[in-house]
Amino acid sequence: MAVTNSERVPATMFAWRKHKGSPKPVIMPTHNFHKKCINIFEVFEEVPVPKVSPNGILCKMLASGVCRSDHSLLTIEKQASWFQEKYILGHEGCGQIIEMGSNVQDNGLKVGDIVALHAVPGCAQDDCPECSRDLAQLCERGHHSGIGQDGFYAPYTAVDIRAAVKVPQGVSPAEAAVATDAVNTAFHAITRRGEVKNHETVFLFGLGGLGFNALQIVRYIGARVIVSDIRQELLDEAKALGIPENDIVPMGKPPQDFIKENGLEGKIDTVLDFVGTHQTFEDAQHIVRRGGKLLCIGSLDTENTIHMKIGTRKRLSFIFSYGGQVRDLEKVLEIIASGHISPRVETRKLPDFEEVLGALGEGKIKARVALLHD
Hints:
The protein has 9 helices and 18 strands. The protein is an alpha/beta fold. Strands 1, 6, 8, 9, 10, 11, 17 and 18 form an 8-stranded mixed sheet that branches.
């Protein structure tokens, strides 16, 4: 028997959905506003409230994080096998459990709990090629919230109980929502894939939504970090965070020149590239020390060049990373609650998604944005 609270759940709700192809812009009335969808690939429309599965939970959404990859999901039509013709966007979420499936028990969660929602918890099947190798975030069988299947840009969402992580006291719904990706992805990349240690010197490209969280994670680990970005206001924020001025590459200064002029040749153990352009990937191969690591997370340019002779002679490790895991998210929320990491997050309302995504693409938003739900 399902466990529920006393809240009356409506039969339908309004949600931001991706339509495969090019539906005409529509005007949908809801609450006290009329919304015209300018982007031809997205529609704010009425859909049924999902039903909870026996192994799942129904959450009333509190906050949904906006990610740059939402733009890619809207515009790229070449999709993975699990993508639906129409689906609710949003892969960063925090909500309150209002119903639990009949098979859910003894998992430490209860109706009323505030939970962060992992978008890709995997299927957890023993015969899964990915989950069986501890690669749940790469699973193709499980649900992918907001990535081809219904996600979190809606008042309610239904997910498997394995996707839910209880939010500790002191962490706001907005922080918890963006932590599921903007912090968790950086944490997994740095601690599990790159295995950055406190004795290392790290070079960080990019202080955007993920990069600034990465900066805080490296500082939490205790490693020295050199930072580079094309926006002065973000370099100023790094300085305000406590990064010494001589560890900040001046805006417009070529990183290779900075390394030479500051006696850092042969001292960069790991490069964290949260940008992924031709230039950052090129610079990374030149500035990293022999035997060093290049950790690739950003992908603004979808194809970059590896210099085979540089990579071979320096015996470099090129490491790619994608997402994070549920156990990473548990640790991330714990660190945020302790005050060692403070995600930069601005808040808007759910109907503002289109405007926020446009501003994000134009570089007008330096932090992360969480859409709050009424």
